[in-house]
Design a protein that fits this description.
By secondary structure, this protein is of the alpha+beta class. 62% of the residues lie in helices and 11% in strands. It contains 13 helices and four strands. Strands 2-3-1-4 form a four-stranded antiparallel β-sheet. It starts with a strand and ends in an 8-residue tail after the last helix. The mean pLDDT is 88.
Length: 312
């Protein structure tokens, strides 16, 4: 179940109240005339089954409930538990299973959040890339996994897939820009630190030339790299739409985006052109593969949804 809070101008309240009261998927409907202060107006509160959130909001938009208006506000909050007969009736009235329902407004909102450049995003990506750089020098798969988990890059990747499916081109541009700038900064910072450690004698070109059986795959992409990227992207897209954030940990440790960036940074510092090219290709394969898979999964989900649920 989702809890929805509306702030409306008084001229919309009656139509909205009557519309919601007639829906079997809506329960706990409250109308509080004149209680809203900023923006001023009436407050309407109700709970709705997850499967019906997007159709209900789409119906409200037809009545004039547009979040883009200055005098209207829409807020969504997922309810963790709602025992009771009325909630069960609302769930039964909604078609399909809750886990299969896509609340496009939530997906789009999270995508917008994931494309905002922030200090924490760049800090995590730099730290993850530095951990990955140490991993390739020491040939440590444990550090590779650690770098994968720390890296925040899947957020803008999934946002890019969402933007392409919903044709939000400004959002797509923001996602691409964040990925490019984020990885460029992380690789540059890590390469500078690698140069410093090379200068003090901690690393040398021999560290890349020596056998590294546990991490050599990072800069040697093959057909399995493509397969893993596609599978991880598909799983990530499903986790985003179904609200299963725990699945994302598995996505993080499946693809070698951050490890490839770390290897690329070290190879730049040690002037190993072969590994620079291989690492760059691995990074590109993973980012492109996850985006393509996410786009395909989200597109299929839209086609399988009979009602028009995606926000306009």
């Amino acid at each position: 179940m989702f809890h929805v809070r509306l702030v409306l101008p008084p001229d919309l309240t009656t139509d909205v109240r009557d519309h919601l009261a007639a829906l079997e998927t809506v329960t706990n409907l409250l109308v509080l005339p004149g209680c809203a202060v900023a923006p001023p107006g009436d407050a309407v509160l109700f709970d709705v089954a997850r499967e019906a959130v997007s159709p209900v909001l789409h119906g409200l938009r037809k009545l004039g409930v547009d979040p883009e208006r200055d005098d209207t506000s829409v807020a969504l909050d997922e309810v963790q538990a709602m025992p009771g007969h009325r909630a069960e009736l609302a769930e039964r009235a909604a078609p399909g299973a809750p886990d299969d329902a896509i609340v496009w407004e939530i997906v789009l909102g999270r995508a917008a959040d994931d494309t905002r450049s922030s200090w924490s995003f760049h800090a995590f990506l730099c730290l993850a890339t530095m951990i990955a750089a140490i991993a390739v020098i020491t040939d440590s798969p444990v550090l590779v996994v650690g770098a994968m988990v720390v890296g925040p890059e899947f957020g803008p990747v999934s946002a890019l897939a969402v933007a392409l499916v919903l044709r939000r081109w400004r959002l797509a541009w923001r996602a691409v820009r964040l990925l490019v700038l984020g990885f460029a900064l992380a690789i540059a910072v890590t390469a500078v630190l690698a140069l410093v450690t090379r200068g003090v004698g901690w690393i040398s070109p021999a560290d890349l030339a020596k056998p590294r059986p546990l991490t050599a795959y990072i800069w040697r992409p093959d057909k399995w790299s493509v397969v893993v990227a596609l599978l991880a992207g598909a799983a990530g897209a499903l986790s985003v739409t179904a609200g299963r954030t725990n699945v994302l940990v598995g996505v993080f440790i499946s693809v070698t985006t951050v490890p490839a960036a770390g290897n690329l940074a070290v190879a730049l510092a040690l002037a190993d052109g072969n590994e620079v090219a291989g690492s760059a290709l691995q990074l590109g394969v993973n980012l492109l593969g996850m985006t393509v898979a996410g786009y395909l999964v989200l597109s299929v989900q839209r086609l399988l949804t009979r009602q028009r649920q995606a926000p306009e």
